[in-house]
Design brief:
Number of strands: 31
CATH superfamily of the largest domain: P-loop containing nucleotide triphosphate hydrolases
CATH topology of the largest domain: Rossmann fold
Number of domains: 5
Helix content: 25-40%
CATH class of the largest domain: Alpha Beta
Bound molecules: adenosine-5'-diphosphate, zinc ion
Shape: globular
CATH architecture of the largest domain: 3-Layer(aba) Sandwich
Amino acid sequence: MKIVRVGLDVPVGQTFDYLSCDAGVGDVGSRVLVQFGKRAMIGIVLEVQDSSEVPATRLKQVVRLLRDTPALSHEDLRLLRFASQYYHYPMGQVVVSALPQRLRRVGKCIPAETDYALTKVGLEAQVDQLPTRARARRKLLLACQAQSVLSSADVQRLSPAERKALNAFVAVGWLERRARESAAPAQSYAALPGLPLTPRQSDAVESLLGALGQFRAFLLRGVTGSGKTEVYLRAAAAAVARGTQVLLLVPEIALTPQLEATVGERFPDVRISSLHSGLNETERLRNWLAAYTGEARIVLGTRLAIFTPLPNLGLIVVDEEHDASFKQSEGFCYSARDLAVVRASQRGVPVVLGSATPSLETYYNAKVGRYTLLELPTRINARPPSIASIPLRGVHAADGLSPQLLEAVAKRLARGDQTLIFINRRGFAPVLMCHSCGWLSGCHRCSAQLVLHLPARELRCHHCGYRAPVPQACPECGNPALAPLGQGTQRIEAALAQHFPAARILRIDRDTTRRKHSWNDMRDRIRSREVDILVGTQILAKGHDFPHLALVGVLNADAMLYSADFRASERLYALLTQVSGRAGRGDAHGEVLIQTEFPEHPLYSALRAQDLERFAEGLLADRRRAGFPPFVHQALLRAEATKVELALAFLEHAKEIGRVLGGVDLYDAVPAPMVRLAGRERAQLLVQSTSRPALHRFLATWRDLLEKSKSRAARWTLEVDPLEL
Ligand code: ADP
Ligand code: ZN
Ligand code: ZN
């Protein structure tokens, strides 16, 4: 009898032992079906041992080792084990979360690759045999007759009604199901030639190629439009040509399809797998399996793709490495960017972190020589945009738009150039106010204001999703004249339409891009010059190439300037650099105008001078003085309860426990910056140390003790390297 140590998706820091009569070391990494309490669950075999600390009489037999489905390799488990230890999150939950949904569930999970082939009877069938009302069936029959075989990918694209019709056609013998013929189409590992490289690109590519086959971390720092993508593609081409796989991580934004297309064009015969949250479970599993078998040579994905099994990994690229979406902020709080470096080092392959505005941690790692710095300091085809501020003090900016900005927009309209007005708030106005009693529209479930949305005439909470119709009168004093305060994208859109009635204006925010494909359609309209003025949130900030966009106007940046979070200015600098980077990528010279009350603020002057070095060095000096990362290492214990007092009491208790352990700095428990969220109240406790090992030793013991001191009043989570305090 063997003991099988199983990781399960349950929130405790332990594994579970089961008996098995035929398990061997070869089963480590396999899926296994076990009985846990009253439930059947899927787990992962982490170890196979001869004995257990639990007496054999109290152990259950495994229900079944699932040997016919994919198992994680030792290398996969090594990364997951690191992640579990470093982020102090239970190994069982970590390993299970690395699997696609389908593989976590009990039951049949591997999709059979089935084709539907037209039969002779089906070929001769007439559309008129079907009733005119049967639109789906008619459409499907014509499609089948045009194509004769529907692959499973084609079937995926059918509507539910058409899929039903598919089964009806099989029943009447018009179609027959058959297993997919060839498992994998033949691949050629060649890439099409790219554009001739600039000398700077060429240097960067040379360095990367020189590192293939060994671990080395690179920071590719290139201003917006400097051709970083081309550098990634060249390095990827070399890695693929060597027969290895490339993992390309991108932020959680609408950019993925664009990059997918670019990569697909460059590697026409190479199997590319995408892994991001926009896929359904079947697609995710299929793409995951293609990476797992090694068939997919390029895997392109968001944060969650970092755990994809890659038997022949040869290169990792993290594009826009500073982006906060690489960090998961709930539950298992890992940083895919940081794990990319760990994974590269475990596997002995190079990793490239690319950005125009690297995070200060990465910047510092390059500065002290841990990462090799590669630089692309100039744009490929264009001059850098000129950046200026519009001082708002003493200026009447009706609707938030200053006369100077309006004049600049008018000039661009006259010349046929496009303008982007950037404001990072959607809706009409961020709050509704009563001027007679001072009432503000607040969310009763969150410490946040309700945002006015027109034309729905609704108040919406952007944090918990609460919605209510706009009240007829002030709920406090009955005043019927409630006034919107401040601006959001809808209000700016309306104001611009008044100022420029002939201009074609397009608003781009989460409200207008929610529908699938709507963003793609909008992008095409912008590129084909069917739009004069864009009004948008940060959806528009990153990575897009709009050749006719010449002017960028930035509204309300000051709101992000003064925040309690010490990373606020780093984030704002990055955001404004990204937005500015949209201007002047084509023929027209780019111009960026930032409206601000504080034009002399160092952030704006560094931005105007486009001097990242100066800004980053200033921030580093501040952080060193104040004792913030990257000079210390931090963890945050968050607690939530029905009342903030309960959360604080739990944290005080946790602090007492921690004080006994010692070895780190424990701060006071404080209410979270946003105390109420969706009816729960939150507080947090910061722990830090200048020594990473000391911090982690502390966290390991502390977490254990906290887990044992089962407090029912508060729910808690521990986040290592928190990005938001
Ligand atoms: P980044 O990602 O650094 O902002 P991109 O990779 O989007 O920049 O490149 C900016 C533009 O320059 C793109 O249109 C790209 O096709 C073009 N480009 C990149 N490299 C070259 C090159 N070597 N020669 C000509 N054009 C290039
Ligand atoms: Zn009132
Ligand atoms: Zn709310």
